[in-house]
Known about the structure:
By secondary structure, the protein is α/β, with parallel strands linked by helices. It has helices at residues 20-30, 58-69, 85-98, 120-130, 141-147, 158-172, 223-236, 241-257, 293-300, 302-309, 312-319, 324-350, 355-381, 386-390, 396-408, 413-437, 444-453, 455-472, 477-499; strands at residues 6-14, 34-46, 49-55, 74-79, 103-105, 136-137, 176-179, 186-187, 193-201, 206-213, 283-286. Strands 1, 2, 3, 4, 5, 6, 7, 8, 9, 10 and 11 form an 11-stranded mixed β-sheet that branches. 46% of the residues are buried. Mean pLDDT is 88; it is low at 274-291.
Amino acid sequence: MNDHPACLTIAGSDSGGGAGIQADLKTFHSLGVYGSSIIAALTAQNTLGVQSILRIETSFVESQMRSVLEDLEIKAIKTGMLHNSANVIAISNMIREHRIKNVVVDPVMMAKGGHHLLEDSGIEAYRTQLIPLSLIITPNAPEACLLLKRDPDSIKSIQDMKDAALELHESLHVPYVLIKGGHVMTSDEHGNPIAIDVLFDAVKNSYFQLENPRIQTKNTHGTGCTYSAAICSYLALGHSVGESVAKANAYVHNAILHAFPMGHGHGPLNHFSSNLIPSMTQTMSPSDGPTTFFQRLKLSCADRWTEYVDGPFVQRLKSRSLSLDGFKRYLVQDYLFLLEFARCHALFCAKSKNYEQMKSRSEKVQAMISEMQLHITVCQSLGMSWEELNSASSLPETRAYTDFLKEKSLHGDLEMAVAMAPCQIGYAEIGDAVFKTTEKKDDHFQRWIDTYAGVDFQSGVKTTMDELNELARGSSPEKFKELQVIFEDAVRLEIQFFSMAL
């Protein structure tokens, strides 16, 4: 397997080096993919704006594309400035001919300074030819409006962004739509300016928000090009669309954060900053849920998280097709797990630095004791005596998980909190989803469902997320990479744990 998959950018050349082909190739190299390029237009351009454009004959665009595709195994393509409808149509035909699936379309229409980069007829070619072939499109708010034949300033809120993303999916048949929110002024609950992008995932029929503090800088030239090139890179590296978007968003945020002045206008991003890994402040969350550090961790292994909270165990719980023997086996092992989990949390409590922390953590230990009582009661209703439950032995999956937690308890508070988070927060997500999507029944499963969907458990999980946010404050990007590994290990152990019931 090639460790450096090849990507292809089809875009315009920026003589100033900050956007277009130049920005794309820098991004590809920075993220560890091989970059190839097709120049669709030449611009005389610098940080002050676009001075002139030279059209490239469509036949030569086709020749470039044929040369690349007949030789290189291209894992993903991104398109940027294509300039005219003839280029859009020709490129669409080549993508169709070579059956390329990972196509990222950045429908570049206008430069930051207002110079038009696409002839008017090109918009319809995008709509009818190229976008229906794409996996994801990445318009900013004005570009989304033009694709929808609306006033360019009609997207003014997060809800407008969601509505536009859904309409673009429905009208242009593209499975993923990312509306970039750089042109939409938003702020957090404290009035601080933030930048929010909205991703619509038609596969899951869900919206996701990506939120960052808005950086006060004029060094943003090439942001859209870099964003789509980063998504293309992560797709080529094998990440899902959601993961690719989140990682690309963090990459761009840090590239802006570490940019340095260049030229007399809007300077370029720093594509090679040493800190180009997901920032601690960037998050991606379901748009109707809280934006937390936990959500950033969760997205770092999105596919595995879905396997945990909506895998075979949960599906059978929803349909009530989980066997009672399997459910009882799970309850016994979860009871034994909770004994060790509570002990680890008691140690977490012992490390408390103040009264409020100790009170919060001790309440969680008490909540785990209540969970154990639930397991005892349900096991007894299934014909298992207290003596049998108390003399049961842990299975290998249980021991693997508890050994992992014990080892992490020897580290700092943040490592310990991350290791414990998937269990606590995942169960709340599962309980809430099962409760909302199934009919309430008087059976052995319902008390389990009611407990984890209940107000007490759900409010306790909110406290867990708040504490995780606080512990993570000020952590370095390098530390985040360590925490990602811990988190993914814990999610993997949860999946193995549930498998004991199947």
